[in-house]
Every structure is written in structure tokens, then in C-alpha cells.
Amino acid sequence: MNYLDVFVNQNINFRPRTDKDASFLETLYLSVRWEEMKGTGWSEDQIIIFLTDQFRLQTMHYDKYYSDAEFLIIQSGEENVGRLYLYRSDDEIRIVDVSLIPGIRNKGLGSALLDKVFAEGIETQKKVSIHVEVFNPAQRLYLRKGFRPVGEPKGPYQLMEWSAN
Questions:
Q1: Under the phi-then-psi rule, with left for phi > 0, alpha for psi from -120 to 50, and beta for the rest, what region is 155?
Q2: Cα separation values, 129 from 95, 105, 107, 148, Å
Q3: What is the mean pLDDT of the chain?
Q4: What is the pLDDT of residues 72-108, one digit of tens each?
Q5: Strand-strand pairing, 148-154 and 127-133
Q6: Can you tell me the distance from the alpha carbon of 142 to that of 138, in angstroms, rounded to the nearest whole number?
Q7: What are the TM regions of this chain, as residue ranges (predicted)?
């Protein structure tokens, strides 16, 4: 299967993030981090408070350190189904964040998104990079798609790179 067909089959499109997306993005963030937090022994309310604050801090960090990044909302038809944040420098395309809602995960869209970024990397002759938490199950996808770890992890994050060369 050509993963780019997923965009056609699921009517996938992209639009810039706006302030009106805050609630969707917070809910998306909680869905991505929920499983790892269940093992803390915290109550549901404590987890929600913690993750809501983490989302706020992450958003502030991205807006400050990647202010000229492209912050995209992924849509299937009119429904918001994820986010793709890309930062482009002279020599690389950094995937700052890619997240999908639970109901659309593991259906080929993540692979299709990576293929789309890789195509841009090939066209512009840039490597593609991403920081991924060492315990993140998506790391298997990144390895399968050709990303390779660079150096040792820094805290919980491993820098991974993909190159057409």
C-alpha cells in the first residue's frame, strides 16, 4: 500500500493551528500521555491536573523556542484528528510533534505523515529529525521507517534522524 493513499482514503488535510484549537489540543495531549500516567497511582483528577499543566508548559515551550515553526492541525474531513508541528532550518526538518487521536492511531496515518515529511526532505535535500521519549511505543514506527538514534539519550529523550542518503 502506498501510505500517501491514506490521505485520499481518509480525506486528510492540514490547516494552521489557531487559538480556537486549544481545547482540542489539550484533549489530544491528555490522550497521548494518559497510559503512562495510569501507573503513577494518582487519582484521575490528579492526572488531569498534572497533564493539563504539562500541556500548558509544552505549548509555551514550543511557542517560544519554535516560534517560526509550522503548527498544523490534521483533519479528516472537518474533524480534528491530530497535530503535526514542523520546524525547518537550513539543513533539517524537525518534527517537533506529531500526535493523533486514539481512534485513528495504528491505521497508517502516522506512516503516511512521515512519508510526506520524507518527501519534503528528499526534495530540499534535508535530513529529518525528531526527539522521542525512550519509552514511547512510536519509536518502533520511527525505526521501521528508517530513523536512527543519534548519540545517547538526553534525559528521557532520544534524538533520531532520517536521511535519504
A1: left
A2: 6, 21, 23, 9
A3: 92
A4: 999 998 899 999 999 999 999 999 999 999 999 988 8
A5: unpaired
A6: 6
A7: none
- Domain 5-162, CATH among 3.40.50.10540, 3.40.630.30, 1.25.40.10, 3.40.50.1820: 3.40.630.30
Query: What phi and psi, each to the nearest 5 degrees, are found at residue 130?
Result: -155, 140
Tell me: the pLDDT tens digits for 42-78? Answer: 999 999 999 999 999 999 999 999 999 999 999 998 8
Share in percent of the chain as helix, strand, coil (round to 5): 45, 30, 25
pTM over 0.70: yes
Residue with cell 497511582: 41
